[in-house]
Give the backbone structure.
Amino acid sequence: MKRRTWLQHAGLLLSSMTLPIKSALPNHHPSNQSDSLSKKTNDRSYWVSILSTMATPILENLSKGTFQKNMPMVVSESYDSRNPKVGYLEAFGRLLAGMGPWLGLKDDQTEEGKLRLKFKEQALLGIKNCVDPRSPDYFAWRDNSSQTLVDAAHLALGILRAPHALWEPLSNETKQHLIEELKHIRWIKPGQNNWLLFSAITETFLYSVGVEPQREKIDEAINKFDQDWYVGDGWYSDGNHFAFDYYNGYIIHCMLVETLKHNLKEGKYQEKYDRAYKRMQRYAQQQERLISPEGFYPIIGRSSTYRNGAFQPLAQVALDKKIPEGISYGQIRAGLTAILKNIYKFDLYDKHGWLILGFTTSEQGNIADTYTNAGSLYEASLSFLPLGLPADDEFWISDPEDWTSKKAFSGKKFPKDYQVKY
C-alpha cells in the first residue's frame, strides 16, 4: 500500500465522521452554536486522522509479517553502535503506549469504531508476530543491546493501558512468549536515571499477569524518584543531575504513576501514588501554560524529534479525568489540537509513509540524537491518550476555550501561578 492511500484513508475518515453534522446544519450561515459543535466534532476526527496516518504502516505490515522487510531503519547522523534492528520494537512499543487507551474503547459501528477495530486486530497480530521466533517479524529480543529494555517497557505500558483489548484476547502461546521475552531482558541493568522506570514498568506488567516480579527493581525506581530525584514544583531530576528537557513528559511522570497504580493492591504504595499524581498534575498545569497563544511550544533539550509526545502528562490527566484546578477540558483539547496542527501541517513522512528524522522537515535531521532511529519517533503517539475517552465525553463535547497564554495575551482574565510544595 502506498502512503497516499493511507492519507486518503485518513481524509475519507475525517470526511465521513463529520458528514452527519454537516448535513444536519441549515443552509444559511451557521450559528455560533452549530459552528462550535462542528469544531468539537472535527477535533476528535482530526486527532484520529493523524494517529491513523502514523499507525497504519506499522500495524498493517506487522500484522502481515512484512514490517522489517518494508520499513527501512533510518538512523541519526550521529547514531551510536547499538543494533538498529531494535528500532522495530521501538516503533511498535511506542505506538501502542499512546494508542492503547483508544484501542481499549468498546467496539461500535461508527466509522471511527470500524477503523479502531481493524487497528486492534492488527495490533494483536503484531504482538503475536513480534514474539514468535518463527515469524519474519520476530524482534531483536535476544540481542545484546540494552536498548531493548526501553521499548519493551513501552510495549508493556501500552498493554497495561488496555489489557482487555491487547492482552486478554491473545492466545496462551503468545502470552507465554511475551512473558518469556520480558523475563529474558532482566539481564539488562538500567542506569541511574529514567531507565529505572523501564525495569519497573516491565516488572509491573509481569506482576499484573500473575508472574512474580523482581520487586526490588520496582521499589528502587519508586524510591529514587519519590525521595531522591524530586526537585520541586512538579519536576523530577533525571538522575543526580537536573536537565531542562521534556523527559518528565516523555517518561518520568507517567511511567512512575502507572507503576504505582498497578502495584496498589500490594498495600504499601498508596501514599506515594497520591503524591506522584499530584506532582504530575502540577507538571501538566505548567505544560498547559507552555502552549503559546499561536499553539507552539519551546523546543528544549534532547529528543526533540519526539515532537508532541512531550505533552503526555497533560494528556494523561485528561484521560484519567483528573485535570488540575483552574484548567478546563475545552482549553486542554484546544491547546493540544493547536500544537498538532502546527506540527502535522508539514509533511512529516517519507515516500513510504514512515516518520522522518527532524522536527518539521528532514533538513532538521541534525537534531536527532545518537540513540535516535526512525522507530524512536513514534513516541509522538503519547499525546493522543485522550482518544481513550468516548466521543461523548466532556473532553470532546465541551466548547473549545482559549488556553492560558492565549487568554493572557488577548487581555482576558487568567489565573495566577504559584509553586507547590508537595
